[in-house]
Amino acid sequence: MRETIVDPPPRAEEPGGAVRAGPRGSNFRRKFAPGRRSRSILRPALLVASLALLSCGRAEAPISSVIGPDPQLPAPRQGLLPTVDIAPATGWPEGTTPVAAAGLGAAPFATGLRHPRWLHVLPNGDVLVAESNAQPAAPKGPRDLAMRVVMGIAGARAPSADRISLLRDADGDGTAEIRTVLLDGLTSPFGMATMDGFLYVADTDALVRVPYAPGATRIAAEPEVVVALPAGPINHHWTKGLLAHRGRLYVSVGSNSDHGENGLAAEAGRAAIWEVDPATGRARIHAAGLRNPVGLAADPATGAIWAVVNERDELGDNLVPDYLARIDRGAWFGWPFVYWGDRADPRVDQSLRPDDPVARPDYALGAHVAPLGLAFSEGARLGQGRGVFVGLHGSWNRRPPSGYEVVFVPFGPDGPRGAPRTILTGFLDGAGNARGRPAGVAVARDGALLVADDVGNAVWRVAAE
Q: What pLDDT, on a 0 to 100 scale, did the predictor assign at position 143?
């Protein structure tokens, strides 16, 4: 992939919110010029929510067939209507919790939050939680309207609190008895990181920072914009993940569509991971062709950057598997043209495909599992060894449902290997309702695993019994 220096867009409230430089080199920008569209099958699916609920689907094979380093991918399957199987959000009945793996226990670390999506553990042990959701916007057509109804049933349309709260377990009993609003007035905040006396926050439309002093429980300073991020009128994937690593900041930016159906000009600067110089705000594309990268983490042993990525939909119950991948500088993972290295998406005009080599993901996590949180196990005291914890938010378009759990993917010397292990489950009840949905994950200073639950409005603590 040719190096691309990003000319950042203005923030979302300003006109003309598209970056001028595309997410790849000159060949990519030429082929993705305004007015060009990928060839897509734009189905009338989800015209109304009731019609969507009538759609049906059946998984071609057990989901285990599309998990691991060598998934067995079926042929694409397209139909008039996509599979829709929604787990209605109900919350947790009084006295109930998720179920931890044998030898582990789960208990609430904090409850009564407002759509907690992301976690960051500070060096002093304080825990930051981003209480956030997408910004309100008018529907952009019947399909968008129907999808909003579907996501509302799934618990994904709660108003955004637009704040970062601080949780402190001062007495070490495993429960945060101190809770303060550290920073508010943000715009759909998500990723968080500290570096050189600043707290950095990835809002949906900009990477911002405020001065931070260890132990602070409130920050009154006005956030300073480091660099604007793609948002604009569609903003299909609003979350922006963030990683501070070796003096640089890395921001994950999801696509503006499922497979480029909104026009490839709308994808400028998207489906990519940005690398930002915090001193100057200068940004470049670190890697591209990633439909919706969310969680980012650096391997403590090697320094390599890893990401979990949400792949495209409507090609079958077992396509396309979401994945975990090492993100090397200059890598291109093929979206929207291909998936899993060499499989062409039949809905996309392949004549527009760049001629660059395609990077292959390292580990399939299963189709439609929606991986969000990612944390290496360094410092964890859960007896799992070396690997990563992944929060699987759960499907809305697979039958039977997939995800709705936190898993551990073991690592060998060269990366992920072996089957994933379930760490936390029980988010779905016996009737198929979602009592909760796991999102961000983080290892606490005491070695416990913290899990943000944006439907249960809680942060769960998983620890050895």
A: 61
- Rounded Cα gap, residues 173 and 224, in angstroms: 36
Q: What is the DSSP letter of 89?
A: B
Q: 415, 363 in Cβ contact below 8 A?
A: yes
pTM for this structure? Answer: 0.89
- 162-200 in b/e burial notation, b at 16+ Cβ within 10 A? bbbbbbbbeeeeeebeebeebbeebbbbbbbbbeeebbb
Cβ distance 361 to 53 under 8 Å?
Answer: no
Contact 62, 426 (CB under 8 A): no
3-state secondary structure of 443: strand
Helix (H) or strand (E) holding 170: none
**Which domains are present in the chain?**
5-464 (2.120.10.30)
Residues 6+ apart with CB under 8 A from 95: none
Query: Measured over all CA atoms, what is the biggest interatomic distance in the chain, rounded to whole angstroms?
Result: 62
Q: Residue 369 CB: number of other CB atoms within 10 A?
A: 30
Q: Which amino acid is at 296?
A: L
pLDDT in tens, 290-339: 999 999 999 999 999 999 999 999 999 999 999 999 999 999 999 999 99
Q: How far apart are alpha carbons 412 and 337 in whole angstroms? A: 31
Beta strands in 320-414 (DSSP E): 321-326, 338-339, 343-344, 363-367, 371-376, 387-392, 405-412
Residue pair 260/40 in contact by the 8 Å Cβ criterion: yes
Strand order in the sheet with 5-6: 5-6, 283-288, 272-276, 248-253, 240-245
SS3 category, 450: strand
